Amino acid sequence: MDRARFFRSFRFAATGIRAAIRREQNIRFHFLAALAVIVAGLLTGLSYGEWLIIILLIGGMIALELVNTALERAVDLASPEFHPLAGEAKDMAAGAVLVFAAASAIIGLLIFLPKWF
Ligand SMILES: Nc1ncnc2c1ncn2[C@@H]1O[C@H](COP(=O)(O)OP(=O)(O)OP(=O)(O)O)[C@@H](O)[C@H]1O
């Protein structure tokens, strides 16, 4: 693979992440929540396996929120007018974020609560 092309795609990805952080409050919230979880993990003391799970959940959550934001943008571009399918597409993407967030919260509680109480 062309090396310049490979690094250019990294730059595009970084630009996308920066744009999302600048424009989307939800993404900023996820980064702040991730920071809070990492600090809590450091103060609590997690095992190697627990850190792997936490990193996977944080990465998955932020990645999913980025995909949701991208889908919102694409829907707005394709269907600026009201359309039931456009609404469903956005609602389903938001549902995917909610499912992963709920699962992450439950796993987080299962990891942290036994260490605190
Ligand atoms: N083009 C559309 N056609 C039909 N329904 C829509 C459309 N755009 C948005 N909606 C409905 O409004 C909801 C909120 O849309 P959207 O997430 O774009 O707005 P928002 O709350 O301002 O989001 P954000 O603040 O993240 O930009 C969607 O989940 C969907 O139900």
Automatic annotation (TrEMBL):
The cellular location(s) given in this protein's UniProt record come to: Cell membrane
List, alphabetically, the InterPro entries matched.
Answer: DAGK, DAGK_sf, UDPK
Q: GO: which molecular function terms? A: ATP binding; kinase activity; metal ion binding
- What is any one GO biological process for this UniProt entry? phospholipid biosynthetic process
Under the heading Gene3D superfamilies, the entry gives: 1.10.287.3610
- Where along the chain is a divalent metal cation bound? 24, 72
Residues bound to ATP are 5, 24, 72, 81-83, 90-91
List of catalytic residues:
65 (proton acceptor)
- Record-annotated membrane-spanning stretches: 27-45, 92-113
Alphabetic keyword roster = ATP-binding, Cell membrane, Kinase, Lipid biosynthesis, Lipid metabolism, Magnesium, Membrane, Metal-binding, Nucleotide-binding, Phospholipid biosynthesis, Phospholipid metabolism, Transferase, Transmembrane, Transmembrane helix
- Keyword Repeat assigned: no
What kind of membrane protein is this, topologically? Multi-pass membrane protein
Pfam families from the xrefs?
Answer: DAGK_prokar
Q: How is the cofactor bound?
A: Mn(2+), Zn(2+), Cd(2+) and Co(2+) support activity to lesser extents.
Asked whether the UniProt record includes Lipid biosynthesis among its keywords, one would answer yes
Q: Which cofactor does it need?
A: Mg(2+)
Cellular-component GO terms for this entry: plasma membrane
Quick one: which residues bind substrate? 5, 65
Report the PANTHER family cross-referenced here.
DIACYLGLYCEROL KINASE
Q: Return the similarity comment.
A: Belongs to the bacterial diacylglycerol kinase family.
Indicate what this protein is called per its UniProt record: UDP kinase
Q: Native species of this protein?
A: Planococcus lenghuensis
